[in-house]
């Protein structure tokens, strides 16, 4: 299990460097998916299957789908079709594909050797232990985090809203608008 831990950690570091150094959002997104999956394998190797599963479900699953939709919704203008063809070139997929193959080989080797029951060191972290810890001594931090996420959601909704082009601007006073009309 230690080999799986170290190889997954190495892939996570390399993929994260790929995220940081790429200027193209699609390339960075591919490296980010590989990075999140390798971090999940690190959690599994450390004996935290709940944290690993949440990493895959929440981050590598839901958040990455959101990022893919954001990239898809970007207005590429006239060069959209040419840009998509450029993104489909094999050299773009080479780096993330190689790192994903290393993760796959590590996972298959770990499963093949029957080394899945062991972990690096420490105790197993279960969903019950996480819930007891978060809603016990860390309850106030969880609630503050939830309020912060709610405030971010309301702010993003307000900032992202576009004004209707026919609606009058709300900066002027109502009496000033009547006199101008």
From TrEMBL:
The chain crosses the membrane at residues 28-49, 56-77, 92-112, 133-156. It is a multi-pass membrane protein. It catalyses: a quinone + NADH + 5 H(+)(in) = a quinol + NAD(+) + 4 H(+)(out). Coiled coil: none annotated. It holds the Pfam family Oxidored_q3. The keyword Cell membrane applies. Keywords: Cell membrane, Membrane, NAD, Quinone, Translocase, Transmembrane, Transmembrane helix. InterPro entries: NADH_UbQ/plastoQ_OxRdtase_su6 (IPR001457), Nuo/plastoQ_OxRdtase_6_NuoJ (IPR042106). It comes from the Bacteria. GO terms for cellular component: plasma membrane. The keyword Translocase applies. NCBIfam families: PRK06638.1-1. NDH-1 shuttles electrons from NADH, via FMN and iron-sulfur (Fe-S) centers, to quinones in the respiratory chain. Couples the redox reaction to proton translocation (for every two electrons transferred, four hydrogen ions are translocated across the cytoplasmic membrane), and thus conserves the redox energy in a proton gradient. Composed of 13 different subunits. Subunits NuoA, H, J, K, L, M, N constitute the membrane sector of the complex. This is NADH-quinone oxidoreductase subunit J.
